[in-house]
Design brief:
By secondary structure, the chain is an all-alpha fold. It is built from five helices and no strands.
């Protein structure tokens, strides 16, 4: 039959083990907070850019033409630019969801480049471009304001 001291020792060990398990449950490899929004939106906008880039590559006549606009580019080139940016956005988005520093840097650069590209894409689809620019600003804010939690 166990003694009172042995029971107390087992109880304390159990309490310590459960406290350790609680700490383990709280620490996770996934990021949280504003970077969760930014990483998710990078992935989502990257997927949209895949569709937009593919459409510009395959059928560049689907976009409304704008004669005499300051930024006159071939839509096939825009398709490739959007497609490459989409791959970078998706990779940076998944990395940002893990809280990786390189992904935050690539994500900020990709979102900034996306804002420039969408600005030049304004004559073709102005409302869509403005929405994407606003989302890119929010993505940059979320990635730049992330602080890794202290361990």
């Amino acid at each position: 039959m166990p003694t009172a001291v042995a029971v107390l020792t087992l109880c304390r060990m159990g309490m310590t083990a459960s406290a350790d398990q609680a700490v383990e449950r709280r620490t996770t490899q996934w990021a949280s907070g504003p970077i969760l929004f930014s990483g998710g939106m990078l992935v989502i906008t990257g997927i949209f850019q895949v569709f937009t880039g593919t459409m510009a590559l395959a059928h560049d006549r689907l976009y409304a033409g704008t004669p005499e606009y300051l930024f006159a580019f071939d839509l096939t080139v825009w398709g490739w630019v959007l497609f490459v940016m989409a791959i970078l956005s998706i990779a940076a988005g998944f990395g940002a969801l893990r809280g990786l520093t390189w992904a935050r840097i690539v994500g900020i650069g990709t979102a900034w480049l996306s804002m420039v590209v969408q600005f030049m894409f304004l004559p073709h689809y102005p409302v869509w471009s403005i929405i994407v620019i606003v989302v890119d600003v929010l993505i940059i804010w979320g990635l730049a304001s992330y602080r890794r939690p202290a361990v």
